Fold this sequence. Notes:
The protein is rod-shaped. The chain is an all-alpha fold and 35 residues long. The longest helix is centred in the middle third of the chain and has 33 residues, at 2-34. It has one helix at 2-34.
Amino acid sequence: MIWIAAYMALFLSLVALGQRIRQGVTQNNGKVHEQ
């Protein structure tokens, strides 16, 4: 059970980090794509 909780916590942290990266990329590249 401990391993399951650890994997879930790691997965959620990776998902949150991925969302932050996606938001940063879309905000930074949004102007470039418009051109």
